[in-house]
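Hello,

Following up on my earlier ticket. Below are the two sequence lines again, exactly as submitted.
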Amino acid sequence: RKEVEQDPGPFNVPEGATVAFNCTYSNSASQSFFWYRQDCRKEPKLLMSVYSSGNEDGRFTAQLNRASQYISLLIRDSKLSDSATYLCVVNGRSNAGNMLTFGGGTRLMVKP
Amino acid sequence: GAGVSQSPSNKVTEKGKDVELRCDPISGHTALYWYRQSLGQGLEFLIYFQGNSAPDKSGLPSDRFSAERTGGSVSTLTIQRTQQEDSAVYLCASSPGGGRWNTEAFFGQGTRLTVV
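Thanks for your patience. The regenerated structure is below:
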């Protein structure tokens, strides 16, 4: 089992739709969680951190479920500019110490 | 301040030649990661440094790949006897690392390697 798993998609949604991505992680000792965004031919950049109580940033909501070991990202009122790959990232103690592990990414395509 | 810097930004090399890719992390960042990404594919983890040591090098695809980090700063990724399947974008990222939690990683813009 991969340490961080995501559905690769693509998720094809119309403008204005609400879309949600899930990500599961295997290391129960993980403490920090992030969502990154990667545009085509660009490097990944931090979208938002994920806090235990859940957090919201405009149209984006991130949630953490420790019991089931998954995090989610909800995007409301999708825009064309939201089209990108969304990467789930987990930072947790392992044999390699405090190391970030990236999921394979979920591709989102927002259509007019 | 300066972000993660990678050089060269583009490299075209002939099959069988050796190449060196360089990463200058953000000053003070102890954790450094190398990934590669083929066109349309996800990130493929290569190696992780904490300081000068590499506690996880499990992602290096073959013994033609090696990486080092000196002075807890600059890292070089070396690919010997390059093959066409090595063509990809090689991304470096750094983060404060150590015992600190909730610290994000910052990526460089990558080196696009083309083996002809």
